[in-house]
Amino acid sequence: MYAELIHRFIDAINDTDAARRRATIEEILTPDCTYTDPEIAVEGHDALDEAFAALQQRIPPGFRFSLTAPVDVHHHQARFFWRFGGPDASAPTGSDVAVFADGRIRHLYAFFDTAKT
């Protein structure tokens, strides 16, 4: 069940249809959800939807998030690894931790991988 919510979360980030994206957000995330990454911290459906819409406006056509490994789930939390970009193998990567409540995602914490120098 939780792994499916993560797959649907990735689909929501990638969805360019505003109404469908919003419906998915409301279905899979709690109303008091939070999302935090190195660049933003938002709370609630409205703020998360606005963040996804802003991302869609900034990215080149064809850029998408995709999972790079199976979702790792235990208790009421999950860890998942992703890449973001086009078919280029050098696309940015990262990982997220999700915490669940009431059968939905309540908190998401994203970490971006950085290039080693």
Automatic annotation (TrEMBL):
Pfam families: SnoaL_2. InterPro entries: NTF2-like_dom_sf, SnoaL-like. Gene3D superfamilies: 3.10.450.50. SUPFAM superfamilies: NTF2-like. Residues 7-106 form the SnoaL-like domain. This is Nuclear transport factor 2 family protein. It comes from Nonomuraea antimicrobica. The lineage of its organism: Bacteria, Bacillati, Actinomycetota, Actinomycetes, Streptosporangiales.
